[in-house]
Amino acid sequence: MTPAAPTAAEVWAALDGVNDPELPVISIVQLGMIRDVRVEGLRCTIVFSPTFIGCPATRLISGEIEGAVRGLGLEPEVQVSFAQPWSPGQISPKGCAALKAAHISMGREPGGAEGSPGGLEALAKARVPCPRCGSEDTELVSAFGATRCRAVRRCLPCRNLFEQLKAT
Amino acid sequence: MEANVRTEEEFVAYIQAGGVVEASDWMPEAYRRAVIRFIEMHANSEYMGALLERDWIARAPTLERRIAITAKVQDEVGHAQHLYCVLEDLGRSRAEVLRDLSAGRARYNSFFHYPTRSWADCGIIAWLSDAASIIAQKALLKTSYGPYRRILPKICWEEAFHVVHGREIILTLMEGTQQQREMVQEALTRWWPPLLYFHGPPTPPEKDADLMRWKLKGRANEEMRQEFLGIYVPRLQKMGLTLPDPQLRFDTETQRWKYTEPDWEWVRQVGRGHGPASQEQLETRRRAMEENRWVAETLQSPPEPEVSLS
Q1: Do A157 and A133 contact (CB within 8 A), yes or no?
Q2: Measuring CA to CA, which residue among B48, B35, B81, B80 is closest to residue B273?
Q3: Is residue B212 assigned to a domain?
């Protein structure tokens, strides 16, 4: 008797062990970048959406997904998809908590409606809580942080500087 | 910080006990100046390093490499941006910092005063200078200044990603043709001395106020250099590369790396803007400032009154 092939749930669990290379406090699953996992026999298709087109980590993350899936004894096929653009609304509550602990904030409540980029004005007016003191009295310092999917904000009461994850 | 910290003595006792200082806290003027000097040098190094790599965006050998180096430049500028904001909250305006930088009055890491010559340089810079930066930045994770301390882990994570990117460039070239391997060796030979100076001259710990008194940094320069050599000399040699220093070796007796002592006075002069490419790079910075002035002016100007077309 041959052992049963790993299930999609096992693949999801394995992918939850792959962290974002630039934010190693959160997995690619918690970030909402894994869209679909299909297992057919010993083949596994993983649909993966980077946080933005042109994300420099796309190939690195794809390689790590392949490694995790091969570790289960499956042959991976990673499909990079932008059919449903990534937005911070897709981050899990657990992921939000991990990011908050790393002083990174989100502009919306987790699990909210699909976010769409609202331009500079919407970004400037967004109510983004300071991860240090919780105040929503924060100002936009720059629409872009170290990557396209982040902006830089400053908390006016406590003068804390922090990054905000945003749709691009 | 407790409201009763009002003298320099109490302040020093507070940070010596592991206390963290926030932008809104009272602080002695000498501390404020030390924090500004330290962070300004870090910020300018991030920014000038980014300008060095920016030149290679259009010359990257593949589209994927171009995306990666563009993103790296954005990362470094993002770090500078963040650090310039921290300086603003300490009373040092961004306009002043950038004016001093353009005028050649600011200091930044001597490493970024050298010219780039080939694509292999981009691999050496991303891999080895970012690795050296991580060692320096890890020594700051317990820095006494809170706003700086909170930014550093993210800077380290991003630098770690750059190290992967740089190492991959070097590995690809080393697995390529003889000519590509020679290109890497030639780049390493040129960049090795600046890598050796990267962490600065050895300073007696008791004289290093940033280390002992203000707890801004956690390790002495020479300790950081020893860690860098311990990790990277064996890796580079394993790749078949030669390090251009006949005296470089690990002394098992002292458990220290020995190397040819650099001319530290020359390194200081380089850091003050007398390096081989200092003026050329500052000129790039001045030109960028001039060419993009209209963007800043447009963003800062009040909105135009609405004009009726009827």
Answers
A1: yes
A2: B48
A3: no
Instruction: Kindly list the residues from chain A whose CB atom is less than 8 angstroms away from the CB atom of residue B164.
Output: 21, 60
Question: Would you say residue A113 has pLDDT above 70?
Answer: no
Q: What is the pTM of this model?
A: 0.89
- In a domain, residue A3? The reply is no
Helix (H) or strand (E) holding A164: strand A161-165
Contact (CB<8Å) A161/B64: no
CA-based nearest residue in chain A for residue B71: A56
Whether B113 is covered by a domain: the verdict is yes
Q: Do B164 and A21 touch (CB under 8 A)?
A: yes
Residues in chain B where the model's pLDDT stays below 50: none
Provide the pLDDT for residue B288: 85
Report the distance separating Cα A88 and Cα B208, nearest Å. 44
Residue range(s) defining the domain that contains residue A131: 103-165
Count of domains in chain B?
A: 1
Residues of B in contact with A57 (CB under 8 A): 161
As for the ipTM of the complex, it is: 0.81
Q: What is the reported pLDDT for B285?
A: 87
At A118-143, the pLDDT tens digits run 677 788 888 888 988 889 999 998 88
E strand or H helix that includes residue B235: helix B221-238
Q: A113 and A61 share a domain? A: no
